[in-house]
Amino acid sequence: MAPSKLEAGSRLSINTVIRKLYYYNGERLIKEYPVAVGKPSTPTPPGNYKVKNKTVNPGGVLGTRWMGLTIPGGNYGIHGNNNPSSIGQAVSLGCIRMHNHHVEELFPQIPIGTPVHIYSRYQTDAVPAFKPATESNSAGGGNGKTYTVQPGDTLWKIAQSFNTTLETLIAINNITNPNRIAIGQIITIP
Fold first, then answer.
1. What Cα–Cα distance (Å) separates residue 178 from each residue in 25, 168, 173?
2. Which of 28, 58, 70, 114 has the most crowded Cβ, counting Cβ within 10 A?
3. Where are the alpha helices (DSSP H) in 1-96?
4. Contact in structure between 14 and 118 (CB atoms under 8 Å)
5. What confidence tens digit (pLDDT) does each residue in 46-69 have?
6. CATH number 3.30.2400.10 is the correct assignment for the domain at 145-189
């Protein structure tokens, strides 16, 4: 396969709640990796960014590879690390940490300019779709409206706010435990 074909559709999606990085070529998931993300006092900023620079062997806490991101207001990136036990934790200053052998595997596949989508949503039953939060991605349909869970929200409060029922939100969003929603989770509104 020619590198240009692979690179043309490369993109990354990072879920900071379940701490996974997904590497896609077009709509096809190529591989997923466990990652460490920002701690609560210095969270990894959600949003849509791009890879802006790449460095081999940046050293120290950055491990063996660095992919800088276009996140404004700081020097954020996806990088290796010198503490493998941190992977799967929320411990960084906002960067996305990977095992060195994983970032070394991913690094040559990701050209500068690759889109990177960072989001926080509790999701265990499916690989995330790479869609903006304004589009509906539920199997139950809906009219395309979504709501991002805020601190202090309950599913019942959200249902009341949008003049719908708790049961409808549970069904449309495939929620298995309505008492367990996460800040930043995207709820589809009927």
1. 34, 11, 10
2. 114
3. 3-8
4. yes
5. 999 999 999 999 988 999 999 999
6. no
Alpha carbon distance 12, 145 (integer Å)? 24
Task: Work out the mean pLDDT of the chain and round it to a whole number.
Answer: 82
Q: CA 120 → CA 3, 59, 109, 166, distances in Å?
A: 31, 29, 24, 22
95, 99, 102, 117: which is the annotated catalytic residue? Answer: 95
Q: Do residues 186 and 180 touch, judged by C-beta distance below 8 A?
A: no
The Cα–Cα gap between 52 and 12 comes to: 13
Q: Catalytic: 79?
A: yes
- Per CATH, the homologous superfamily of domain 3-119 is L,D-transpeptidase catalytic domain-like (2.40.440.10)
Q: Give the residue among 149, 147, 47, 152 at the shortest CA–CA distance from 94.
A: 47
- The 10 Å Cβ neighbour count of residue 163 is 8
Half-sphere exposure of 40 (CA within 13 A, CB side): 1
Report the C-alpha dihedral over residues 86, 91, 70, 110, rounded to 10 degrees.
10
Using the predicted structure, report yes or no on whether residue 128 has a pLDDT greater than 50: no
- Give residue for tokens 């700081």: 74
Burial readout 50-87 (b: 16 or more C-beta within 10 A, e: otherwise): ebbebeeebeeebbbbbbbbebeeeebbbbbbeeeebb
Residue bearing tokens 């879920």: 15
